[in-house]
Amino acid sequence: MLESLEKIKNESINDIQSAQSTADCDQLKSFFLGKKSPLAAVLKDIPSLPVEQRSVVGKRANEIKQELSAYIQEKKQTLHTQQLEHSLSHDSTDTSLPPFKIRNGAFHPITSITRDICDIFSRLGYSVKQGPNVESDFYNFEALNIPEHHPARAMHDTFYLKNKQVLRTHTSPVQIREMLSKKPPVKIIAPGKVYRCDADVSHSPVFHQIEGLCVDKGLTFSDLKGTLEFFLHELLGPEKNIRFRSSYFPFTEPSVEIDVEFKSKNKSSWMEIMGAGMVQRKVFKHVNYNADDFTGFAFGLGIERIAMIKYQIDDIRLFYENDSRFIQQF
């Protein structure tokens, strides 16, 4: 019986030495050390041996089992090392290098400001509405009291398309669509991209606006002023200086522009960030609202300019250059 054990050991070692892969080692381990292996068959026959041989054969069988297990593990580790070295020398990817560091993402400052603005107005009961980027002349101009030959059209630096369509110059068309679709009261804000043919350090041909509209019975200019003061102090801080200036817009009367104190490079100046006013009666006529029963106010602001003031950025073009060094600051 001891001779049979030694024969099993020698045959097993020869086969293990011939293994070409770690998978081969796993198969050999199952074959030589499994429940149906030759070694297992010897162990099953031990009870039939004479009493004086049982302990000797059993001890040797267990020793051979441990030796073969260790030998298979050693061979498997050797093959694994060889496979890794071959992979490193032939593959284009060096798997021994540490992995790339995964950085947490962050919102672009324009996105962050937009979310902050929407959050403030949602607390005041406003809902967020969207509209198309390509608008008809009616929604972008006519319905807003800017007829075909009105001089105010020149102020918009419009991109004109075919079939009397334009790239929207403001998100005010969303207000018209909303009023045509429902009766008062109306409280909405409309964020989105707008397009004007103008570019310098404080203007971009594509930029972001949020416009708001509130229509109900008995609204006055005091409601407009209180709403905008609350909004700006919530967004920029209660210490921020704000001023209202008389202005002109075809779709509101009276109209104002709102300036915020802007500090850049140790200098202080005023930057216009919003236009607002009481909704013009002719606008109500286009949407079939009775101007004797309802009043309303509207406002619009440039998101980039708000971001410039909040983060003290002196060039609007930085928002669009995709410079990670700039974006990672926010």
pLDDT averaged residue by residue: 84
Q: In percent terms, what proportion of residues is strand?
A: 15-25%
Which shape, going by the Cα principal axes?
Answer: rod-shaped
- Supply the number of helical segments: 11
The radius of gyration computed from the alpha-carbon positions, rounded to a whole number of angstroms, is 39 Å
The number of E-state strands comes to 9
The name of the CATH superfamily of the largest domain reads Bira Bifunctional Protein, Domain 2
As a percent range, the share of helical residues equals: 40-55%
Distance between the termini: 79 Å
> If classified by CATH, what would the architecture of the largest domain be?
2-Layer Sandwich
Descriptive overview:
It is built from 11 helices and 9 strands. By secondary structure, it is an alpha+beta fold. It folds into 2 domains: 2-90, no CATH class; 109-327, 2-Layer Sandwich (BirA Bifunctional Protein, domain 2). The strands form 2 sheets. The protein has a 7-stranded mixed beta sheet, sandwiched between helices. A two-stranded antiparallel ribbon has the order 2-3. The chain is rod-shaped, with a radius of gyration of 39 Å. The mean pLDDT is 84.
Short recap of the structure:
This protein is α+β, with helices and mostly antiparallel strands and 330 residues long.
